[in-house]
Amino acid sequence: MAEGGIRILLADDHAIFRAGLRALLELEEDLEVVGEAASGDEAVSCALATRPDVVIMDLSMPGTHGLEATRRLAALDIGVSVLVLTVHAEEEYLVPVVDAGASGYLTKASADRDLVDAIHVVARGEVYLPARATTLLLKQYRKSEREEGHENPGIQELSAREREVMALTAEGYSSTEIGQKLFISPKTVDTYRSRIMQKLRLNHRSELVRFALRAGLLREL
User: Fold this and answer.
1) Rg (Cα) of the chain, in Å, rounded?
2) Distance between terminal CA atoms of the chain?
């Protein structure tokens, strides 16, 4: 375990799957599995006890399901990022997962090639969504906005540059990558992002992503 590594809690009701996941993750020098849970309730209590950086959360578990456990963890505000890892396709659960406060969504079918990268992204406080998921999420939010007639008055408070930073953040780019695209320093990107969240009264990066989607700031990918 390297100094400053990422502490992970595994929440899945299948013990064999958790064992395989633990074995995969512990091949990485900077990842450490600090706990396991077989239900949503256990995930919340174990997160409070172990204070991981990332919870890898299944959705279908007995008792309190993963979606409700994600909501509880987001409400606790203990500095943990939730990465949902599930067999369910994005079409069914993507919007509820993002609305619940998760920082990422990944299907188990792609876990072998994408999981480690996704963990690093959400551990940095950023949002991990595959390109297809981002496109789907954008379309679903646009449909919801048309049907419900919601407005986003807060968007008027943002400058053009702040809107650019918000959109690129929602698309999953890091501060360094955003800085390269906009020809500004990563520190300046972080300053813009903090200012955006203050103006819009947002507390978490996932809230910023939801706002960007609802405001129509994301492009089709």
Assistant:
1) 17
2) 37
Q: CB under 8 Å, gap of 24 or more: what pairs does 154-157 form?
A: 154/199, 154/200, 154/211, 155/215, 155/217, 157/199, 157/200
d(CA 118, CA 123): 8
Write b or e for each residue in 126-147: b if 16 or more Cβ atoms lie within 10 A of its Cβ, otherwise e: bbbbbeebbbbbbebbeeebee
> Which of 118, 73, 140 has the alpha carbon at shortest distance from 100?
73
Q: Which residues are bridge partners to 216 per DSSP?
A: none
User: Taking the mean position of all CA atoms in its chain, how far away is CA 153?
Assistant: 25
Question: Same structural domain for residues 109 and 143?
Answer: no
Query: What are the beta bridge partners of residue 107?
Result: 86
Domain boundary pick from 77, 101, 128: 128
> Which CATH number belongs to the domain containing residue 32 in this structure?
3.40.50.2300
| Phi/psi of residue 48, nearest 5 degrees | -65, -35
**pLDDT single digits (tens) 155-170:** 778 888 998 898 888 7
Q: Kindly state whether residues 140 and 124 are assigned to the same domain.
A: no
Could you report the per-residue pLDDT of 2-60, keeping only the tens digit for each? 456 999 999 999 999 999 999 999 899 999 999 999 999 999 999 999 999 999 999 98
- The beta-strand segments (E) located in 50-193 are 54-57, 81-86, 104-107
Asked if residue 220 is part of any domain, the answer here is no
Indicate the pTM of the whole model: 0.72
